[in-house]
Structures are given as C-alpha cells and as structure tokens.
Automatic annotation (TrEMBL):
This is Putative flavin-nucleotide-binding protein. Keywords: Plasmid. Coiled coil: none annotated. InterPro entries: Pyridox_Oxase-rel, Split_barrel_FMN-bd. It comes from Chamaesiphon minutus (strain ATCC 27169 / PCC 6605). It comes from the Bacteria. Gene3D superfamilies: Electron Transport, Fmn-binding Protein, Chain A.
C-alpha cells in the first residue's frame, strides 16, 4: 500500500520554488478549464505572466483559480501542491516592472507566452498581462513523507 503524507508549508514552498510550472484551473464559459502555465515565485507571492486572450478574459470575469504543481519520479514517488486563490490583475507600473524583472531572470525569451505560433479565436496581439495569486489555501501531498520511510 502506498503511504501518502501531508506536506508542511516549508515543503510546499520548496516545491513551488523548484518547479516553476504547473496547471492553472479556471472557469471558461461556465465550465472548468485547465491549462499548463509557468509561474514565478517572489517570496510567497505567485505571479502568472501571459498574453491577453482567453485565460485573461476568463480570470477577469471570475478570479477564482487553482494552480496545481507536481514533481513525479515514478508512480510511487511524487509530490503535488494545490494553491487555491484569486487571480488579481497587476495594473500598477512599479509592480509590473518588478515582476517583469523576475520573469526575465527565469526566462529571458518570455517563452512560451510570447512565442505562440497559432492563431486562436482571440488572435495574438501579444499584449502582456500579469496576475498575482492571492492565496486562500495551499495544500500538498507526498509519497516521500515520514510514513513512507
């Protein structure tokens, strides 16, 4: 039997710092939607960098979101974190500039947000948009915890 343990807050933050990408859940046209998403961590603040389009439209309409991050080393060795919160659109220029510095440190090409090659129903204006996740709850599970040893 596989033992699954709760992760402590320090373990959760360590995983969030380490990984940098996950799956963003939000509501699209009244239905749940999940998309892969890079995120950027500054202390305990989580930022999402994207271009204006479907995700931004949906997060502006309903700011309740979920970010799921995982690290998998096999079916019996994994860690997973869920961040439930609100997507707050960053609109003040000093914060935008600070976050863009953080984003460019991790990814100078701004890929994949800027480098999309297809045209969807929203088009590709490549107008950037930044959101901060106002965290309501963070939880994590691991198969590499105390009871697994």
């Amino acid at each position: 039997m596989l033992d699954i343990d709760e992760m402590g807050q320090d373990e959760i933050h360590e995983l969030l710092h380490k990984v940098g990408y996950g799956h963003l859940g939000f509501i699209h046209e009244g239905k749940p939607c999940v998309m892969p998403m890079h995120y950027y961590l500054e202390d305990s603040d989580i930022y999402l960098f994207t271009t204006v389009g479907m995700k931004t439209h949906d997060m502006d309409a309903d700011s309740d979101i979920c970010l799921q991050v995982e690290e998998i080393h096999g079916s019996s060795h994994w860690r997973s974190v869920i961040v439930m919160g609100k997507a707050i659109h960053v609109t003040k220029q000093p914060e935008i500039e600070r976050v863009m510095t953080l984003v460019k440190q991790r990814d100078a090409t701004l890929s994949p947000a800027i480098n999309r090659t297809w045209i969807d129903s929203w088009g590709r204006a490549e107008v950037i948009s930044i959101y901060r996740i106002e965290s309501g709850e963070m939880s994590g599970r691991t198969t590499d915890g105390v009871s697994s040893r």
